[in-house]
Fold:
Amino acid sequence: MCKDKLIKYLSRLDFGVRHYTFYFTLSQADRMKVFFNANDDVAVARPQKISFGKAEAPSFHQDVRERVDEYFKQNDLSKGANFEMKLKTFLILTLWAGTYLLIIFQLVTPPVMLILAMLHGFSMALIGMNIGHDAIHGAYSKNSRVNKILGLSFNMVGANDYVWNITHNIVHHTYTNMPHYDEDIQQIPILRMDPTQELKPIHRFQYIYAFFFYCLATISWVFVKDYVKFFQHQIGPYYREKFPRNEIVRLFLHKALYYAVFLVIPFLVLDLAWYWILLGFVASHFVSGFTLAIIFMLAHIIEGTAFPEPNVEGKMDMPWADLQMYTTCNFAINNRVVNYLFGGLNFQAEHHLFPKVCHVHYPKISKIVKQTAQKHGLPYLTKDTFFGAIASHTRLLKAFGRPAPAMG
Ligand SMILES: [Zn+2]
Structure:
């Protein structure tokens, strides 16, 4: 009885907080119960293994893959980075290093340094979206070593490539938008991002305050989230018994290096009051956090996307590739600035179907994906403009903050 109460209590806690309470006293079976009952009053374990439906041949997935492969073959193109991508990599890294060096050598006045710090924050987001994201997916190059090295750019901006690979590549890309399984839509209890989460009175205002929490996204990665997720046995339906020792060393080493370069050195060498330095650090992270969070949100938490759940046996009523089409939304795909800056994340359907194709190819293959989706009777969700997508995201947040059915 007492154990049941504990399970129920723990299942109501935030993923991260839960791990540091009495979670460790439970057996593995009971931990599973806690996890799969999150935000739920019913003490019935959710299915731990998810299986996806099988489509009749030729499936959409098979069809779209063959057509896209044909495109690369016909045009004699590699699926990895092309010259444009390499140039972009160079420009982004130059912006990142240049802004830091201009600040650290104090070549400008403090207010200009603050602007540079914000620009530096923007370059961090660009690194994450354009270089790290592609490299960790294995999309940048055919050579896995190149991907491994460029994946380190993630750690260079304070995040952790190993944690990202689990939370993003494995969990988010497999169980996209599935409540209780995709942790991307269950970030913090104060944000209700899917219709199954418990509605609290404060959620009524989430369409306003959500944007402030987006600003905290990368500060949270740098100081809290990566550590919490790293030492969490269960991330979504993904379970790990042990944490690789070399990854533990890498986590602490890379974090320490990041703190040294971006916090300790500025405090030691800059001839400025401490609050200027702290302000610069926070401002850079506000810009990077906001940019990253909003771009990732627009792709899934937007009017029109679905939040499907499996049946009691863990079976989804659709194949995996079809799920991607129902849960992802493209935006501003004719906007050259958005296409260039945001790592192809505005071509989210293409990205989810072809995560191992470098994002510079998405605009070209989008026509094939759209046609094939239409042929198979699947949606191809798009919002025409960037600000239209932000407005739609805001409306959905507003709807999820109220009791009425929220699907747009
Ligand atoms: Zn991805």
